[in-house]
């Protein structure tokens, strides 16, 4: 039994940033304990993706290819990953805390008869044992958890670790693995995948998020936020109040019953800072709040607070950032 396995994900022909973060951080731990980082990818035609994982520190990349793994399905992926983990026998298996991982990781843990630490924000080795930090009670407290059963499995919140710089001189051993997936393993068939219409970076992967709440007053309020987002290269999020009012899609909801995000910069506009919203963005590295109520709870977690009307402040921020950055940035 050896190695730290990263279950890597990709969109189109690009590996997701979260997978690079895990490879990068996994490599630090692997080096400290004299083990290797093994990234595993599922799908078809995966060869071009392997090199990028090597550049972030993967020692080995396993490509598990099959027509039946071309799109994510619970049955096929659970079977394939369980087989690969049994064969490779790693000490630790890490996933990004993605929609896929929330479905896949518990099923694989159950099949392997081990535990799973979910939505972790840190991991560290102490006396040869890995400990994970998990926010609990909607982010009000943190629990440190570990497991005696191996492999130790965990899902890690995106943006929890800084990603090292890619090093193009690094290579990994690339191996193809065969798995047997019968038709009976496929309980669902993906007929069509629709791309997000916004063209913006996915919220959970975003480095900068501009979010709007009830204070934006209506769907047209989001245009003001989008203009700022275009300038700083941000994704646009929302509170549940804005989503429930029908002003934007549920895909944009941040919080306990929405997405959990951890960007470098979170700009909350017209959001009061309810505990359920904080549960989804409280681990952001820098929080800027714009709210006309100086007593709003969001100011208790904000690194920078601007008391004022967002319809005056946000266009001013846009102007300032345009001057500094000089026009629209690519979503980061
Ligand atoms: P409000 O609380 O109404 O706040 C609006 C803010 O806008 C106020 O602070 C006001 O001062 C400010 N404002 C108004 N006009 C302006 C202006 N012109 N300029 C500047 N500021 C202005 N909420 C989530 O967000 N995500 C979740 O996932 C979520 N899950 C939930 C799960 C459960 C089980 C429950 C019970 C609730 C959940 N909620 C969630 C709802 C949550 O409790 C709050 O109701 C919600 O977050 C409030 O959204 P808000 O801050 O946009 O609205």
Primary descriptors:
9 helices, 5-stranded parallel beta sheet, globular, 332 residues, binds flavin-adenine dinucleotide, 17 strands, alpha/beta, single chain, 7-stranded parallel beta sheet
Question: What does the model show?
Answer:
- With 332 residues, the chain is an alpha/beta fold.
- Helix content is 30%, strand content 25%.
- The chain has helices at 17-33, 47-55, 74-88, 99-112, 221-232, 240-244, 275-281, 298-301, 310-325; strands spanning 4-7, 10-11, 14-15, 37-43, 60-65, 92-96, 116-120, 122-126, 129-136, 141-145, 152-156, 173-177, 208-212, 235-238, 265-269, 286-291, 304-307.
- The strands form four sheets. Strands 7-11-6-1-4-5-12 form a seven-stranded parallel sheet, with helices on both faces. A five-stranded parallel sheet has the order 14-13-15-16-17.
- β15 (265-269), α7 and β16 (286-291) form a beta-alpha-beta unit.
- α3 packs across α4 and α5 runs parallel beside α9 (310-325).
- Bound molecules: flavin-adenine dinucleotide.
């Amino acid at each position: 039994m050896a190695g730290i396995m990263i279950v890597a994900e990709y969109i189109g022909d690009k590996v997701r940033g979260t997978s690079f973060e895990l490879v990068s951080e996994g490599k630090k731990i692997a080096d400290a304990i004299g083990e290797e980082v093994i990234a595993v990818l599922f799908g078809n035609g995966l060869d071009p993706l392997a090199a990028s994982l090597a550049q972030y520190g993967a020692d080995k990349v396993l490509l598990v290819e099959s027509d039946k793994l071309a799109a994510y399905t619970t049955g096929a992926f659970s079977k394939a990953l369980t087989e690969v983990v049994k064969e490779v026998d790693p000490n630790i298996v890490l996933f990004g805390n993605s929609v896929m991982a929330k479905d896949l990781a518990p099923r694989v843990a159950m099949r392997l008869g081990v535990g799973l630490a979910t939505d972790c924000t840190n991991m560290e080795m102490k006396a040869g044992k890995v400990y994970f930090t998990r926010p609990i009670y909607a982010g009000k407290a943190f629990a440190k958890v570990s497991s005696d059963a191996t492999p130790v499995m965990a899902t890690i919140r995106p943006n929890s670790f800084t990603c090292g710089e890619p090093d193009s001189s690094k290579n990994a051993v690339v191996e193809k693995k065969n798995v047997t997936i019968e038709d009976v393993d496929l309980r669902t068939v993906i007929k069509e995948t629709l791309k997000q219409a916004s063209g913006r970076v996915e919220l959970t992967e975003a480095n900068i998020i501009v979010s709007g709440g009830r204070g934006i007053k209506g769907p047209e309020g989001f245009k003001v936020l989008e203009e700022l987002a275009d300038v700083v290269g941000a994704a646009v999020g929302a509170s549940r109040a804005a989503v429930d009012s029908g002003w934007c899609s549920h895909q944009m909801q941040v919080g306990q019953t929405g997405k959990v995000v951890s960007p470098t910069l979170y700009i909350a506009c017209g959001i009061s800072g309810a505990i359920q919203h904080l549960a989804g963005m409280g681990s952001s590295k820098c929080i800027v709040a714009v709210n006309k109520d100086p007593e709003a709870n969001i100011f208790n977690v904000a690194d920078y607070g601007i008391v004022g009307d967002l319809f005056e402040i946000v266009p001013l921020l846009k102007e300032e950032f345009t001057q500094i950055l000089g026009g629209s940035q690519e979503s980061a």
